[in-house]
Design goal:
The chain has 146 residues and is mostly helical. It is built from 6 helices and no strands.
């Protein structure tokens, strides 16, 4: 049952809701696990659950529910979801691993000045397979409920 929440488009609304919930869960988990409330975390990528996975899987699920799971539009949505989740797990995670290593190297470079170091590279860019799976399950749940 669709309630016409934001845009009057069930696929977009479903995807936005899944993204919002995933980002909110990240903030809540930071409070519970790290004991700190950081609202900027709401707008960052990386972490548990994957909002990218939640967004694309909920959109694909909404497409399936509105246009049928046997159609070409759902097939395209599912393929794009798989590509986004693969990227989240592999490409973006590797970039985060590289940033973490470079940051460690910079900590030990005594010859560099403060201007040379500037800002650290961003380390939380990708997701573990578990984070992607839980984001996908969140997206599936939102897609089925909305």
């Amino acid at each position: 049952m669709y309630f016409g929440m934001l845009t009057k488009n069930p696929v977009i609304d479903c995807a936005l809701l899944a993204w919002f919930l995933a980002q909110l869960i990240k903030v809540i988990l930071d409070v519970v696990l790290a004991g700190k409330l950081e609202w900027q975390r709401f707008f960052s990528s990386g972490g548990m659950p994957s909002s990218h996975s939640a967004l694309v899987v909920s959109a694909a699920t909404a497409v399936g529910r509105t246009d049928g799971f046997g159609g070409n539009l759902f097939a395209l949505s599912a393929i794009i979801s798989a590509v986004v989740m693969y990227d989240a797990c592999n490409v973006r995670r590797s970039a985060g691993d590289t940033a973490r290593l470079v940051n460690k190297l910079l900590e030990h470079m005594e010859k560099l000045t403060a201007e040379d170091l500037a800002d650290n590279l961003r380390e939380v860019m990708g997701h573990t397979p578990l984070q992607v799976l839980l984001g996908a399950l969140l997206g599936l749940g939102v897609g089925l409920l909305v």
